[in-house]
Structures are given as C-alpha cells and as structure tokens.
Amino acid sequence: MDISNYLYLSVILFTIGALGVLIRRNAIVIFMCIELMLNASNLALVTFSRINGNLDGQVASFFTMVVAACEVVVGLAIIVTIYRSRRSASVDDASLLKN
Amino acid sequence: MVYLIALPLLSSAILLLLGRIADKWGHLLATLVSASAFGFGVQQFLQMHKQPGSNRAVTQKLFDWISVGTFKVDASLLLDQLSICFVLLITGVGTLIHIYSIAYMSHDKDRRRFFAFLNLFIAAMLLLVLGDSYLNLYVGWEGVGLASYLLIGFWNQNPVYAVAAKKAFVANRVGDLGLSLAIMISFAQFGTASFSGVAAGAPHASSAALTAIGAMLLLAAAGKSAQFPLQSWLGDAMAGPTPVSALIHAATMVTAGVYLITRSNFIFDASSTARMMVIAVGVITLLFGAIVGTAKDDIKKALAASTMSQIGYMILATGLGPVGYAFAILHLLTHGFFKAGMFLGAGSVMHGMDDEVNMRKYGGLAKVMPVTAITFGLGYLAILGVPPFAGFYSKDKIIETAFNSGGSKAIVIGGAALLGAGITAFYMTRVVVLTFAGARRWKSEAHPHESSFLMWAPMVVLAIGSVASGFLLSMGSALVNWLQPVVNASHVASGKELMKPMTVSVLALGVVVLGAGYAIIKYRAVAAEAPEKVSIFTRAARMDLGQDIVNDKVFVKPGFALTAGLVAVDYKVIDGAVRLVGWLINEISDVLRKIQNGYVRSYALMMLIGVFICVLILWMVTA
Amino acid sequence: MSTATMLGNDPGWIILVKGLFIFVFCVLCTLMAVWGERRIVARMQMRLGPNRVGKFGLLQALADGVKLALKEDLIPAAADKIVFIVAPIISATTCFMAFAVIPMTGKVHLFGHVTAMQLTDLPVSVLYILAIASIGVYGIVLAGWSSGSTYPLLGGLRSSAQVISYEVAMGLSLVAVFIYSGSMSTSEIVAAQHKWWFAVVLFPSFVIYVISMVGETNRAPFDLAEAEGELVGGFHTEYSSLKFALFFLAEYVNIIAVSSLATTLFLGGYHALPGLTFTENWLGGWFTFFWFLGKVVMFFFGFVWLRGTLPRLRYDQFMKFGWKILIPGSLFWILVLATLRVMSQRAASRTLVVGFSIGVVLLVVAISSLYDRSKEKAEKAGAILPSLPAPSFPIPEIPGQGFINGRSEING
Amino acid sequence: MTLFHLALQVGRTATPEAVQFWLLAPIAVIAALGILVVKKAIHAALLMAWVMVTLAIFYIAEDALFLGIVQIVVYTGAVMMLFLFILMLVGVDSTESLGETIKGQRIPSILIAVGLLGLVVSLLGRATITQPAVGLATANADGNVQGIAKLLFTEYVWAFEVVSALLITAALGAMVLAHSQQTKSKFAQRDLSIARFRKSSLGGAAGLPTSGVFARHNAVDVPALLPDGTPAPTSISQTLKARGDMITSDGFALESIEEQED
Questions:
Q1: β-bridge mates for residue D232, sequence order
Q2: Which residue of A has its CA nearest to D117?
Q3: In which band, very low, low, confident or very high, does the pLDDT at C300 lie, cut at 50, 70 and 90?
Q4: Of B593, B601, B608, which has the smallest distance from its Cβ to A91's Cβ?
Q5: Across the interface, do B599 and A92 touch by the CB < 8 Å criterion?
Q6: Phi, psi of B65 (to 5 degrees)
Q7: How many other CB atoms are found less than 10 A from the CB of residue B508?
Q8: What range defines the domain where residue C290 resides?
Q9: Handedness of CA A64, A65, A70, A75 (dihedral sign)
C-alpha cells in the first residue's frame, strides 16, 4: 500500500476538523474539532517519520499530544467558567466585544 | 577652570532645590560662591600673567558633546586674554552686586530665589565667555537669556513686569536666531564651530559667506546688547530689581554682543561689509540711546538709555577694525565700573525714596545721601569723559579712532560719536542735577536716608574703579598689548591720523562742557510733574523715538497677519488633508467593521481563507 | 526462546483456540465469582447464602443469568437509544480484551504445539491494558449519560472522575515495575520475577496498585459510581435484562482482569511459590495455570473481604485520598526507586545504598510525625465551636465542650 | 481517475495493512463527517473517540506502537473523558440546532475547506510521487519505546522539560479558572447535628418528619400527618418544594377527633 494514503487521510481529517470549527457553534464541539485537526497532523507526522526512517516525527507528535492535553484542560476550564456565568456554551453568545 | 562655571551652577541648583531650607543662608552661600569665583579668576589671571604672550590661552576639554560620524563637537573651555577680562568683570562686579543685593533685597521674601538666579546668571555668563566654540557659547548665550528673563520678571506678580520679561525674551530670541544661523552657516562653510577652526578657515572663505556670518552675528549681538533695531527691550528690562539692572543690563550681559564681535574678529576683519554694518548699527544706537536718554524721567530708564548709547560706542569701536577691539573692551570694562556704580547709586536712591523712580520727585538728595551722591558723581564724571576719569581714556579713544578710521565716512562717524558725547553730557547732567541738586521735590512722608554699609561699600569700590580703571588699563597701552594676541591688532598705527589725540580730547571736552552746561541751566529748577507742552523732539524722545510703534507696525502687525494666513492655510489645507484622511478611514472602517462582527467563527473563517491563499500561492509557485 | 517469539510462531487456529479459552475462562470465573462472593459475604454476615440451585448452590449464578435474560428489556423514554445500547456493549467487550496479554501458564503443549497460554505479547502490553481499561470506562460514563436520569448521570460523572484519578495512581505504581523489570511486556515482567516477587521488592507500589485497582473497578469501598444508598444503582439504575447482565459480567470480568494483572506484575504470575518450583513441570506445564488461578482467586477473595467489611467512602474523602495521598506517595516512591536503580546501575557500594534507604525512611518518618502533630494542633485550634446563644434548657454533653448548663451559662 | 487508480491499487496489493486501512479509513472519515452534523455534543464526542481509536490503530500499523497506545491512553482515555465530563456538567440535555445564524458563514466555509483540501491533495500528489518510504525497521531496531526514549531524553530533552512545565502550568491554570470561591462555609454533619440541638425548641432535634408517615398516601410529595392529624409541610423535600411538585397539604388533614366522634 502506498504510504501517502495516510497523508491523504490526514489532509481529509484536517479539513473536516477545520470545517467543524467554522460551522459548529458549541464551544465543546469546536474544541473537539481542533483536537481532530491536531490528530490529523499527528497522523501526518507519524507517516513522515515512517517515510524518513527516523523517530523524530513520532517525538514531535508526542509533544503535540502533550500540548493538546494542556490546551484541552485550560480550554475546558474556560468553557466551564463561561458556562457558569452565562449558561451557554455557544461561541456565538460570547461576543460582548463586538461593536 | 570648569569650577568657575560649576560652582555658581551648583549653588544655584542647591538654592532652588532645597527651597525654604536655604532661606536663611542662601544669599550668603551665593555671595561666597561668587566671591570665590572671583578669587579663582584672579588666581587664573595672575597665573596667565606670568606666561609669555603666546602661551596665555588655555583650553580645557570637558567631554565629547556631539559625536555623529565625522561631525564632532567637544564641550571645552577656552581661557585666554579676552575671556579673563570678562571673567574678572563678571565675577568681580557680580560679587559686589551680590553683596549689595544682600541688603537691597533683604525685605523680599524671595531673596533666596533671587540669589539662585544671580548665580545661574553668573554661571551662564561665564560659560558664554569661556566656551571655545560658537556652540558652547550658544549654550551660555541662551543661559544668560534665561537668567535675564527670570530676573527681569522676578517680580512677576506685576503683569507689566512679566510682560517686560517676555518682551526681553522675545527680542533676545530674534538675536539668538541670528546666532544659530551664524553657527549653521559656519558649520556648512568650515565644518566646525570652534573659534580656532573658524579663524583658521576664515581667510579662505568666500566673502559672501563671511558677510552672511558677520551679519548674523551682528544680529545676535544687537539682540543681546540692545542695539538698533532690537534695542526696545532694554528700557522695559528695568522692571527687574536694580542690582539686576546693574549687573546684567549694564555691566555684563548686554556687553555679550561686544564680546561676540570681538571674539569673531577674524570674521569682521575679513569682511568689510560686515564691519560697515557694525559701524552703522553702533552709530545709530549711540545716538538713539543718547536722544532717548534726554527725555526719560525714570532714573533707571535714563541710565538704561545711556547704557544703550555707551554700548553703541563699543559696537562702533569693534566695527573700526583691529585697533578698535581693544578700545571697545577698554570702554566695556570702564563702563562696567561706572555704569554699575551709577545703577547701584540709583538703587540706593530708590531704596531711600521708597522705590520712587521719577527723578522729578527727587532733588537735593546730595545732602541726605552723601555717599551715594559722591559715588554717583564720580561715575558721572567718568561717563562724561572728564580727565582723568575712566571714560576719558576709553571713550575719547573710540572717538579718536572713529575720526582716524580713514575715508570720508570717518568724519561722519567721528562727528556722530562726538555729538553722542555731547548729548551724553547733557542727559547725565540732567540726571545728576534732577536727583542730587536743586530743591527737594519729594513728599514729606518720604524719609530719604543713606543706605547701609553693605550697599554703599560696593558703590565705593565701583566708584574707585570708575576713577582709576581707565588710567590703569590704558597706561602704557596695557590692555591693548594684553589683548593683542587675541584680536590680532598688529597694525595699530597704520593709516594716517585725521586728528591728533589731543585735538579729539579738547573737542570732546568742549562738547561735554556745552552739553553739561545747557543741562545745568535748563534743569536747575523744575516742576515735580513733567511738562505736557513740549517740543515735538522731546515728545518723540519720550516715546523712545517710536521704537515700539515701529516694531508694532513693521513686525508685529505683519507678523500677526502672516500667522493668521498660515493658520488659515494650516486649517484649510493641512488640517483639511488630515480630516480628509480621517474621514476616509472612518468611512472605510464603517465598511470594514462589518467584518469584525464579534463571532469567533467568522474570524476563524478569515484565518482559513488566509491559509487557503498561502497554500494557493505555494501551489502556484511549485507548479 | 522468549515468550514473544514463541507466541509469534503460533498458527492462526491456535490463536483462535486460545481466544476461546480466554472467553470461557472469563465467563466461568464470573459465574463462580458471583456464587463465591455471595457465599463468602453470607459467611461474614452469619448467613448461609445461596445453596438451593445445584450442589452448594453452585449453579445459582447461572440461574440468575437465565432469569436476567428473560426479563423485559426496558429503554427509558428520555434515554438516548443508540448510546444506551452501545454502552453495555463497550463495557462487556473491552473487559475481555485485557486478557489478551495476560500470561496464564508457562510453556505448555497445546495440540502438539509448544506455546504459552497468552494470546499475544506486546512490548507495551501493560500500557495496552491501561488503554483498554480507559476505553472500558466509556461504558459506564455513557450508560450514565444516556439513561436520561439524574442518578445514573451522577454515577457516570463520579465514575469518570474516579477512573481518571485512580488511573494516574495506578500508572505511577506500574512505573516502578517498569523501572525494575526494564520492560513493559507482561511475559518479561513475569520472567523478571523468577527470584523475588515484585510484591516484596516493590511493596509500596504493590499496595498502591491494589488500592487503585479497587478504585478502578468501582468496587466497595470505592463503589461510588453505583452507590446503592445514594444513587439507587448508580450508572446502571435504568438498565434491565440482558443489558444489565452485560454490566454485571463486565464488572466481574474486570475484577478478574485487574487481579490477573496484579498477579502478573507483583506475584510472579503463573510461577509457583518459592520452594515449590518443581510443580511447574507437572501436567506438562499446565499446572502453572493453577498457581495463576490460585493467586487470582486470592485477590478476588480480597475484593469480597473488603466488600464485606468496609463502609463506602464519602466522595470527597475518596478523591482526597487519591490525589493527596496515593499520587504524591507513589511519585515520591518512584523518585526513591529511580535513585536506587541508578545507584545499582552505577555499581554503588552496598553501604551507600543502605545509607540512602535509611535516610529516606527517616525522612518519611519525620515528615509523617510532623504532619500528625500539625494535624493535632489544627484539630485543637478548630475544636472551638461557634458560640451560639446558649439555650435556656440543659442540653446533653458535647464531646470536647463539657457539659453546658444553659442557666449557669446565662447567670455566669 | 485518482479514485480508480486507488481502487486498482487496493486490488493489487491486499497486504494486511492495506486491508486494515481501507476498512478503517473510510469509517474514520465518515465518523469525522458525523461530527459536523450530529446534534448532540456527546455523539460528536463518541465519534471523535472513534476517530482517535482508529488513528491509534493506524499508528500501530505504522510502527509507532508506543504512540498508538499513548494515543488511546491520553486522547481516548483522558482527553475525551474530560470532554465527556464537561459535557455532563454543561448542558446534559442540550441539543444544538444546526441552522447557521451568521450570514455568509457556512457556504464560504465549505467552499474554502474543500478548496484547501483540493490544493493540499494536489500538492501531496506532486510531492510524494518519486520518494520511496524508508520505513522504521532500523530506527525501531532496539524497540520503538527505547528509540523514542533515546530521542526524548537526549536531543529533545529541553523540549521535554519545557512541555512538562507547560503541562503543570496548564493544570494549575485550569484549577484557578474552574475554581469557584465558596462564599459560605459548609456545614458538616456534626455541625448540623449540634445546630439542631441548640435551637430554642427541641422539636426538630430528632429530624424532620418523614413524608407519608401516618398519611393515607405514601408518595414523596404528600405531607406526613402529625399525631393530631394535621399535615406537616416540613416533611416534604425542599427540592420538591422548589420545583413546585407539591400538593397543598390542607386536603390531607384528617377531621378533628371530636368531629369524628360526633
């Protein structure tokens, strides 16, 4: 099997993730879509690692995972805080700064 | 050498920054500093005196001031034969006036501030005369301008005084513009602003540039020394306390113009046009000041007009070429003594007369203020040029030099100088007669009395100076020889003499006797009020020959019109453009604001579009 | 020949046979476990327990299963149907998957093949078990959420927080094993214990693992996800019939799985007790299976014993215990252990090692005594009750306050 | 054309990896697309988890064993569990209407996304045509875990430390953000029991009457009757009262004893 198929899959998943960020309103779902994008790039990294025959790509995606975990933890805490005061997890409602 | 400047500056800073804490001892500190500066100056002078003529100039570099690429200006000081004269005059007279002021200002609650300003002035003036380049001089130049402004407006609670201070400041600015232009031209022309650099370059420079620099320097000198056409501020500057008038507006600061021209002798030596302008300014001012002086009833203003006139003599002398410089400086020094002495005397009179300045309200004060009368009288004799008093040696030399300057113009200049001497005799006699002689015209509630020791002691010292300085300085051409290396007066005796010194002295004395005699006759008995019905000449003189009116018509009104025009242009064209830009941005923003809708997802879409564009470019590039 | 290469040579049908064996083993174990638990708990509570169905009631669990299967399958109206159905399936499938890497016997002959009773061996098989366990939690959490009811939701919430918390402690206790055995493969860990069991060498890790495995399986005293007294039945309140049976099955298979893992990691796996190693060759190596089974049963008895004796913890106490004692404790322990390990690798002298160990022990004792003292102080300081206005009637003595006579209070 | 080519390729090289890929990849894509359209966030989370598990399997297939397992432990086990946890705290029963509220958002988004996809796929097609894969056989010779560990603790040790600092900071940050200050001190059981006895009346010392005691109904929303026959409103849970799920107690009062004797 052609290894680049993984890359195509990665691109597809990345695009879907980006699209999800753009068209979903629930902040948590948007977060998931960001995770999807990160995962897709991880897949690309792992595949690159295999193509180049060294493990740096895997280490990079390992770091991506850690950073993604950090991001989720803080992001979800923010969502909870916002939800506590506004009773809504929709990103469109959090637009006080406009105008 | 740097301590000369640093000490007064430091003392001034201490007095200003410590505030009320220094109220008790501030004046003493200031006086002490001034006196020590004088002592230091004397020591320097003695040291210099020991050296042979060519080694006397000392330069001291302080620090690199400006260093941009190849363009370098050092902050450095130059103490030479010319500077030391000024240093001694400034610190000596300055110390005397400090002492005088202790008593004179003792009732003023702001005495500490006054002394702080005085010290600031001393520091700035010393910097002016010690700077070794035009740029350093400029710093001192501005410093004395500031000090003068602060001191004229010392009693700024009086709006008239504040306006007078502002007027002096503005008039000085015009002159300063000339100085800065001169510096710029010399930078452009010679690549340096140091005296030695410019002196070295001057012989090779084009006459147009030299004339331009000379004209600009003359403008600067006119501003600072109250010469025509920037003379109008000096009379109003009398608003300041009398010691200020004595120190700044008689003895030192106003002579800065003379110093500047003397210092720039290499410029004026090289440009006869510039020299001619100097002569013209000097002649006009000496007559102008003298005429104005005849009509003033305010004793200080009369003395101010006299100062203007005497400085006119000095400027005239500097315009007369190498030989004139020394006489200008000689007259400057003697004038410093007798004019300062007379101002202090006037202050003493005012002090005794409850700050009354109108001479018509004086009369017969010689009896109650003998010391003041005697010292003032000695100064009077000095300014008149009666032998053997100081003025005789200095003023007569100038008149003589004017007559001997060669050509047909010499007769005009000399005649004018002689006429000036006559008028001087007239108005000075008027002052003396009105103040000290005749019947008493003061009101009964005034109790004129002799001033305290602290006040009359300086007056006595200055009176001695006005008696002896002329003789001492010109004995064996002492000053001329002393200054010879600086002003380069090697060809003193060149050109044929039109008149012998003796002839000039006799002529001058005759003119003086005429003027004085007329004044005695005319003012032996006067009314306490100035007569209203007077000749048109008197009226013109009273109005300062319309100097303010001319200023107003020629400069101020067109200036206002120009400014108004510029404001209109600024508002319509420049602001209009700015407003147009603002309006455009506003309109564009209104459109763009719709993009900024507050929705995170829209922003994310923008980001993605950006990414898309980047990838698109990448795609096209790699195609 | 290492176990990994040996397993790599297995033909496909042997793998199938092994898979079947694991499945049967798990189900049988569950049936026996249910019966055993009820009998043991009954003994502890001075009862008899089930003894009607079959000899000693042995078939009781089977009968229960049949009954459950025949019950009506209810799906609440508020439930999210798909997730409601998927949840027990996730639970029941993932619990079996952990067994794939558990070595149950040593080298045995199976239908003429030399192999070991272990489906596969990965270099990271312990991590694999952790991964599977973390997927297994989805069953509980989703069941709680999808029921559309308050109590299951609370149970699901509790369970997700609980599992995340105790997985950290469990993972940290496993790190000690990895450090000591130098591998994450189960068979190699078992092989590394041929001299000393890790339960002895790494006693603190063993204790932490045992505690967190109880937390991980939601068993008493950590059964907060299904706490009957508070949440009715917790996450499975709305479940009935076969779906409930699946959760039931998953719970017991999970218990067996974590017990098996504990056996493998700390009790030498299928190896015999020290001194009885000759038994390992009996029955062509198959006797090792009984050693394995025996150890698992011992752990299971521990589970039952805990359930029979300990009351349930309050939720905050439980979380505090996990985060403030287990995790810092195991972190500290790993630090000490890693230091010791490096020392031994760099061939440090024995005195140095002993000295370091004594130092650590002294440090721990000092800290704990200080902690106790500060706690005592805090308790003393906090013992003063808010002084409410004293009532006008005598009230019973309150410990630490002495007898309060209302009237005398007012008069005094 | 490309699709056809790919299909041919599948037919030709039916290695286990290819089978696995063509089995799981389409499902993963479908699941990912599902995230875009499902209404309930929790369904999205489940689909997401599925995609992550699939990716983990792909990692393992690509000789990244350790990363695959870590993917499951970290992403599926921790991150997605955290998502579920928050979803349960925040709007359990919220379904999201999928209608777009921002004008000009959806269509351009889809267009741009599809365009980006096309561009990158096209770029990829150009980039990887001639490059044969090296494979990880040599790199993984000492074992995948050991290989990664070697890189992590030598070349990338600085990044490793920085990332760990980041992780701790993030944990602290999350605690600070999500922590809500308790304004009133909580009463422990002990305090409550003391407070019960310190009241002016000992009436409630034994606890509130249970609902349904002496009553003719045993539903929780029916008040208990006191020994004298009057209903006790305190016997009903405060929660029910707050919800308004309570029947007025007057109707349950018994007639007075005298009346009954009459």
A1: D224
A2: A15
A3: very high
A4: B601
A5: yes
A6: -90, -60
A7: 25
A8: 73-345
A9: positive
Which of B301-305, C62-66, D158-162 shows the lowest per-residue confidence on average (mean pLDDT)?
B301-305
Q: Do B598 and A95 touch (CB under 8 A)?
A: yes
**In this complex, is the C-beta atom of D134 within 8 Å of any C-beta atom belonging to chain C?**
no
Whether pLDDT at D185 is above 80: no
Rounded to the nearest angstrom, the minimum Cα separation between A56 and chain B is 25
Determine which of D88, D200, D245 to mutate to test the interface with C (most C C-beta atoms within 10 Å).
Answer: D88
Nearest 10 degrees: CA dihedral of B325, B327, B330, B332? -70
Q: What is the rounded (10 degree) CA torsion for B109, B112, B113, B118? A: 130
pLDDT of residue D247: 64
**Distance (Å, rounded) from C-alpha A49 to C-alpha B226?**
88
Asked if the C-beta of A91 comes within 8 angstroms of chain B's C-beta atoms, the answer is yes
The residue of chain D nearest to residue B610, with distances taken between CA atoms, is D112
ipTM: 0.75
Q: How many separate domains does chain C show?
A: 1
Q: Does the distance separating the beta carbons of D113 and A18 come in below 8 Å?
A: yes
AA letter at B505: S
Q: Which residue of chain D comes nearest to B602, CA vs CA? A: D105
Which residue type sits at D95? T
Residue A40: per-residue pLDDT: 93
- Say which of A7, A12, A28 has its CB closest to residue D117: A12
CA distances to B107, C92, C225 from C157, in Å = 89, 20, 8
The answer as to whether C263 is a domain residue is yes
pLDDT of D132 over the 70 cut: no
- Residue C338 forms part of a structural domain: yes
Contact status, residue B30 vs residue B116, Cβ threshold 8 Å: yes
Instruction: State both tokens at A99.
Output: 């105008």
Tokens (6 digits) for D245:
């799920």
Please name which of D10, D131, D139 lies closest in space to residue D63, comparing C-alpha atoms: D139
Q: How far is CA B19 from the centre of its chain?
A: 29
**Dihedral sign of CA atoms D141, D145, D150, D155 in order:** positive
CA distance D232 to B152: 97
Q: Which residue has the higher pLDDT, B139 or D207?
A: B139
Find the radius of gyration of the CA atoms of chain D.
32
Residue bearing tokens 């109880």? C214
d(CA B164, CA B153): 7
Closest alpha carbon within chain C to D80: C138
Specify whether the CB–CB gap between B270 and B207 falls below 8 A.
yes
Q: Which of the listed CATH numbers 1.20.120.1200, 3.40.228.10, 3.40.50.10610, 1.10.3860.10 matches domain D1-94+126-137?
A: 1.20.120.1200
- Comparing B112-116, B213-217, B488-492, C84-88, the range with the smallest average pLDDT is B488-492
| Neighbouring subunits of C (3+ Cβ pairs under 8 A) | D
Q: Does D145 touch chain C (CB under 8 A)?
A: yes
Residue B599 in contact with partner chain D when CB distance is under 8 A: yes
Query: Which of A5, A12, A17 faces D21 most closely, judged by CB atoms?
Result: A5
Shortest Cα distance from C85 to chain D (angstroms)? 13
CB spacing of D123 vs B622 below 8 angstroms: yes
Residue B616 in contact with partner chain D when CB distance is under 8 A = yes
3-state SS, residue B298: strand
Instruction: State the number of CA atoms in the 13 A half-sphere of B512 facing the CB.
Output: 20
Sign of CA dihedral B347, B349, B351, B355: negative
Q: How many CB atoms lie within 10 A of CB D210?
A: 14
Q: Say what the alpha-carbon torsion angle D46, D47, D49, D53 is, to the nearest 10 degrees.
A: 140
Q: Which residue from A19, A35, A46 is facing D67, i.e. has the nearest CB? A: A46
Shortest distance between the Cα of C124 and any Cα of chain D, in A, equals 7
Strands, E assignment, C164-231:
none
Q: How many CB pairs lie under 8 A apart between chains B and D? A: 33
Upper half-sphere CA count for residue A44 (Cβ side, 13 Å): 19
